[in-house]
Amino acid sequence: MERTGAILTYCKPQSLLTKALILIYLFGFYEFQAKAQTQQQEDSIKFRKYDIFPAISYSPETKLTLGVIGYRYLDLSKSDPETTRSYINFVAVYTTTNQAIVESNWELFTDGNKLRFRGGFTFARFPDRNYGFGNDAGALVLEYKLNNTGIEDTVVQNFKRFSVMRFGIRPSVLREISNQFYVGLNADVEYVWNFEELADSINILKREANILLLQDNTLGLRSGMGFNIVWDSRDNILNSSSGSFVYLSTLFFGKYLGSDYRYISTRLDARTYFNPVLNHTIAVRGLLNFRFTDDVTLPLRGLSRVGGGRFVRGYFQGTYQNNNMVAFETEYRLPFWNEDNIAPFRKFWKRLGLVVFLSGAQVFGERGSFGMDRFNLAAGGGLRVLFSEDSKVNLRIDYGVGLAADSNGPGKRQSGLYFFLAEAF
């Protein structure tokens, strides 16, 4: 699975506290950036560089989140200019509601890009939501929960809340067959345990989305192996402005690998980048996800899931989920700077940029049908702060809105504010 940035959080900007934390976040960013630049100068002889900054955010689901997020760059080719710079990113955060996530992703290149190692791992105890199967998120759930005074609160929503512990690893190794074309093997292993309902009790008022039996379809081991193919002509894997990227992966999950679930997963991820004017960039992405199984149902985390900070921003991950998915994203990136700018405050101004984006996705089952009028759309924009001139990595702050009218319950739309290091795609 392609992963280009470390996830931080999803939140809705509903209070002055959120705005204050954004200011603290940016202040901390510049303080840590100064330290990171010093470290980069000290490490330049070793061909190692670091981008590190504090992770501070707030959301109604997680409350206050504190931690650290960053990148470590490595030169595994002894400064061969033809070899792509390798990186390992990482994030570690903890919330005031006793939730935690530790995640790392990597992209490593040997001399001359002959071998390429990709992948990541995740350890998390974090809240999740189950919207059930379907392309409409049309269920209604009445949730009961006792507050601090012992009085029972109720809320009507279109999902079930739950929490699990999970650990996953996704290694991949590829060999360059010809210029920019790779083939290789990959695996996806995830173990989920310690299921916990976050409501004291619920009453399902409307089952249109076919709410899943959570514990039966969430826990256990998913273990799969397969092959992948990559064609990559991007100028920068963390902040592309030209070139293309095509990724095809097929994974086989089965009992012979210890998996509790049996299915085949096929994913096609295609992206292209071009410059309409000056240093502006238009990024376009298409994504196909297909799951094939003889079992009655797939595990919740084995489904094709829409939403999150990297994909169709504006929806909570899993708002729409089923075996199969067709999706697209397009983004216009507008940096404020140019190399010849000698205006006052250039050092600050040249680090800033804006983006606008539009995306859409639809999911369907084995007997489902694809339709051009069935896409759930999302749109938004964001701020970019150039974190490292050497690596061209941006700190991105995005606000997305799910345009589907009932995505957050009858007559309500979802929205999200996202903090990340590196672009969404």
- Assign a percent range to the helix content: under 10%
**What does the largest sheet look like?**
18 strands, antiparallel
- The rounded distance between the terminal residues' Cα atoms is 12 Å
Give start-end ranges of low-pLDDT stretches: 1-7, 9-14, 19-47
Can you tell me the CATH superfamily? membrane protein fhac: a member of the omp85/tpsb transporter family
Order of helices and strands: EHEEEEEEEEEEEHEEEEEEEHEEEE
**Class from helix and strand fractions:** mainly beta
* Total beta strand runs: 23
Q: Outline, from the CA principal axes?
A: globular
Number of domains: 1
CATH top level label = Mainly Beta
Calculate the mean pLDDT score and round it.
83
The count of helical stretches stands at: 3
- Approximately how much beta-strand content do the residues carry? over 45%
Report on this structure:
The protein has helices at 16-43, 214-218, 346-349; strands at 6-11, 48-59, 63-74, 86-95, 100-109, 115-130, 140-146, 152-157, 160-169, 172-178, 181-197, 201-206, 220-232, 243-253, 263-274, 281-292, 304-306, 320-322, 324-335, 352-364, 376-388, 393-402, 415-421. It is mainly β and 425 residues long. The chain has a single domain, classed as Porin, CATH 2.40.160.50. Strand 4 and strand 5 (100-109) form a beta hairpin. The model is unreliable at 1-7, 9-14 and 19-47 (pLDDT under 50).
